[in-house]
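@here heads up, posting the sequence + SMILES for the pyridoxal-5'-phosphate run so it's all in one place. Ping me if the SMILES looks off, I pulled it from an old spreadsheet.
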Amino acid sequence: MTKKRKAPIKPDTLLVTSGRDPEAQHGFVNPPVYHASTLLYPTAEDQVAHRARYSYGRRGTPTSEALENALRELDGEGCAGVALLPSGLAAIAAALLATTQSGDHILVVDSVYRPTRNFCNGVLRRMGVQTTYYDPLVGTDIAKLFKPNTRAVFVEAPGSQSFEMQDIPAIAGIAHDKKAVVLMDNTWATPLYFRAFEKGVDLEIQAGTKYIGGHSDIMFGCVSANAGVLPALKDTVYSMGLCVGPDDMYLAMRGLRTLGVRLARHYQSALHVAKWLEKRPEVLRVLHPALENGPGHDLWKRDFSGACGLFSIVLKPASEKSVHAFLNELSLFGLGYSWGGFESLAILFDCSDYRTATKWAPGGPTIRFHIGLEDPADLIADLERGFAALAAA
Ligand SMILES: Cc1ncc(COP(=O)(O)O)c(C=O)c1O
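bot reply: prediction finished. Complex C-alpha cells:
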C-alpha cells in the first residue's frame, strides 16, 4: 500500500490491501505479472557479488513476492513466511518433505485427503518414513500413538469427504510436548475461518486451487510456516525447483481480493441447502459441522468462525441405479471433483476401502456437494427434481 496503515485491520480489509504497492507500479492498483527466468546484472562486479534484489525467476519475482506477502499477512501473527507451490498436493508433499527424514515416524489423520495418504504410503515410505494413521476423533488419546521417533502430526478438519472434526489445539499441545511439529490442511476453512497459528499449527497448507483461486481455472497451493520450520520449508521448495507460473500467481492474488465475500456466500448458501436436506425423507444424515446435529459441531463452534460450501450427505439405503438417476437429473450441479469454484458440484464417494484406523460404514450411499454462488432456491429446486428421479428409478 502506498498510504501507511493507521491501525490494525481486519481480515476482510487485509484481503483488499495486502501485497499491493501502487507507488512502485506507477500508481496502478495491481502488481504486474513478471514472466521471468533470467535476471541481468548491470556489471560484472554486481554479478560476482550477486548484488540484486532478485536472482532468478524460480527464486522469486515481484509477482510471487506480492502474493507471499498477502498470504502471510492474512495468516497473521505466528506466520513467518509462505512458500508457493504449483498445486495443493505439491504443497502437502513439500510440507511433509520439509519436516521428515529417513527413520522418522509420523501420525496422519485417517480422514486425510486421499492423495496425501498415497504420498505417505508411497514416497515417504520409500524414503524410510513410517506413517501411522489415527482416528480423527482421537483427541488427547493421540499421546498413546507417539513413538520416540515421531516427528510430525498431520491434521485436517473437517475431513473433506466424511467431515469428522478434530480437536486441533489438544493435539497440537501434545505434539509440541513430544517435540513434534503439526501440519494442517486448512483448505476447507481457510485462514478466514480457522486461525491455524493461534491454534498451535506449525505449517498450514492450502490447496489454492479451491477458494483462493475461486474460479476453477488455476492450479495452486501454498504452505505458511512459523519461524521454526520456515527455513526447512524454503530450503525444500528451492532445492526441488518448485515454483508457480506467473499467470496462476496473478489469478491467486486476484482471487484473494474477493475471498471474504465469496466464502461468506458459500457458507450461507451451503448451510441453507444443508438444513433443507436434513428434512428430506431420502436423507439419513447431513455431514456438515456447522449444523447443530452435524459431526463435531461443538469443536466447530469452539474453534472455527465459519464454514465453506463443502459438505456431504448419507442417503437412506437406495439402489445404485436410483442414486445415479438422482445425480444424472441435476442440471445445476456438475459431477466433478475439486471444489471452491463459483459453481455447484456433486460426487458420489466411498471411503470404506482405504481407511485403516477407522471403519467407514455410514449406512447408505454418500454424496458430497459443493454449494456454489448460484441462488440457493434454484439449487434446491434442482435437488428436488433429482429426488423425484431417484424415487422414479
Ligand atoms: C482437502 C484437499 N487438500 C488438498 C487438495 C489438493 O489440491 P490440488 O488439487 O490443488 O492438488 C484437495 C483437492 O481436491 C483437497 O480436497
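MO: The pocket of pyridoxal-5'-phosphate is lined by residues 87-89, 113, 160, 185, 187, 207, 209, 219, 221, 338 (CB under 6 Å).
MO: One more: The chain has twelve helices and eleven strands.
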